[in-house]
User: Fold this.
Amino acid sequence: MESQPQTDAANPGDSYMNDAKQEDSLRSSIIDSSPLPIFAIDAEDRVRYLWNDEAEGVFGWSKSQIVGRKLPMVPEENREEIKDLRKRSLRGETFRGVETRFQKENGDLIDVTISLAPLTEEGTDEAVLCIASDIQERQEMEITFKDSKNLYKKLFNRLNDAFFLSP
Assistant:
């Protein structure tokens, strides 16, 4: 015999409401515990209600300092690029892994990739979801690899004697 989900006979919608609250709580937990900075920007390039702990850790601004402000982490030379991406995302485009440069609260510049997607919620203005990733470590590894490759080429080209490698 199949078991049916139990609902409160007085109000069958209570079960759904509890599931919806749990889903909202889970969604919030995922965003808050993300290892990547997550934030939302509106049509005026202001940070919306979404600014997770990792965004604070990477960029330096607390949620209370940044929500409602015009993207202080975008340096002047990158504002048009970010504005264009935001506009296109509000029209429905999604972007993944766009390399750009942001500025931390302390003024240091940081190379990041950002991914953007339209974020719409019933009853609210449209916004763009942004997920950033610090790519400094990757860039340093790429430089080390290139330097190593160049050193190997120089060494190989300076060898006067032929040699053989055998298994």
About this structure: The first strand starts at residue 38 and ends at 42.
